[in-house]
Design goal:
77% of the residues lie in helices and 0% in strands. By secondary structure, it is mainly α. It has one domain. α2 packs antiparallel against α3. The protein starts with a helix and ends with a helix.
Length: 115
């Protein structure tokens, strides 16, 4: 009888102890969405540069945006993988790294008048 009671308590406690990720998917989705907007501006700027509609100094800006974009993409992929592989752990640091990389990308754009 005691064993049955202990088993029942373990099952009951197990049901109460479900662990969920404290960060919602929205935090990463927001970073990805903001990167999509910034990337759209970068693509438009690059097209203007290729068409030689803007000064040739744009080539340097395009290279800077490409380098920053690679970092953002890597950070977003790392954050996605962390969330996927660790559904019960806090992904705040991985998402924060993606946000920092995105901020750096946006800084390059702002500093060079890319909107």
């Amino acid at each position: 009888m005691k064993k049955l009671l202990v088993l029942g308590m373990c099952l009951w406690l197990g049901a109460c102890a479900s662990i969920s990720n404290p960060i919602t998917g929205n935090a990463l989705t927001n970073v990805e969405s903001a990167y999509g907007v910034a990337l759209s501006a970068a693509v438009a700027y690059k097209q203007l540069c290729v068409q030689r509609t803007i000064p040739s100094s744009c080539r340097t800006v395009v290279v800077q945006m490409q380098q920053a974009g690679i970092k953002v993409q890597g950070a977003i992929i790392a954050a996605r993988n962390f969330v996927k592989n660790n559904p019960t752990l806090d992904p705040a640091s991985a998402i924060a790294a993606a946000q920092v990389a995105l901020s750096d990308f946006q800084t390059v754009q702002t500093a060079n008048g890319v909107h």
